[in-house]
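In this section we walk through a basic example: taking a raw amino acid sequence and producing a predicted 3D structure, encoded as discrete structure tokens. The instruction is simple. Fold the sequence below.
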Amino acid sequence: MTEATPGRLVVPGDLLGTAEEYVPGRGTYESDGRIYAALLGHSRVDPSSRSVSVTALHGIPELDTGDLVLGRIEELKSAMAIVEILAAHPSSRTVPGEPEGTIHVSKVKEGYTESLNDELAPGDLVLAKILDNHPSIKLTTAPPALGVVAAKCQRCHATLELTGRSELVCPRCGNREHRKVSADYGLRMSPETG
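The resulting token sequence is shown next.
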């Protein structure tokens, strides 16, 4: 079969193969025994399942275990933080449906965490990794590259500036706060843009 060259850029209506050769997969449709691309994207052939599919070029982000996401801390409970997932990372494409995830107190940082209030605050933007996405999304910010990427002062709501490894200071009122900050604090986005 020559039509379903793996990785080839295809447009809707491009012939990918026949139903005798392959099973139609995601991003395809079958008509009169022929399989066509239903999306703009790259064709993919899975020899084990004998299926042909199309991975969308500009598809809706799908969250999977191991993916990085940008999220906003919505609420802190005694043992977990509730996070509204804003976008997949590094694409910064918005994730549909406003999914929520949780960060358990044991997954905020490496080592012991006595209280979530010492590491996160409502409104903080975090870069987190998905540990599990079924039945609910479980996140971690423990690795050094992950954590808070933007935070606001809990007193006056100005954007906090990083002054030490995990200490933040408010340029407006001088308030000092502690967070589990990402290695890239301040570089990804501000709370106003999230």
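Looking at the output, two observations stand out. The longest strand covers residues 80-89. DSSP finds no helices and 16 strands in the chain. In the next section we compare this with other chains.
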